[in-house]
Design a protein that fits this description.
By secondary structure, the protein is mostly helical. The two termini are 19 Å apart. The relative contact order is 0.23.
Length: 89
């Protein structure tokens, strides 16, 4: 789990270097796959819940492109260390 967390942190650095640290994640996704965001929005709002798009996913898409990857990486590293620590006891 720690290795996966480190991979996400590396991905965060690569995303910041390639697309610029201030570019929103939604803009980066649009550059890579333009129809994906429309499909994702329609699917989430119709099949799951409209509030999920407005209150959860939209703020993530408006965040700088490296932030979601860094947060996921940090969480995975923290969980990995917690699992290791729990096994030693």
């Amino acid at each position: 789990m720690i290795a996966l967390g480190v991979a996400f942190l590396v991905l965060a650095g690569v995303a910041a270097a390639v697309f610029g640290p201030a570019a929103p994640l939604g803009e980066v996704i649009y550059h890579l796959a333009p129809p994906f965001l429309n499909t994702l929005q329609a699917g989430v709002q119709r099949r799951l819940a409209p509030w999920l798009w407005d209150d959860v996913l939209l703020p993530v898409l408006l965040a700088p492109n490296w932030v979601p990857f860094a947060v996921i990486g940090a969480l995975l590293i923290a969980l990995g260390y917690a699992r290791r620590r729990g096994r030693r006891r």
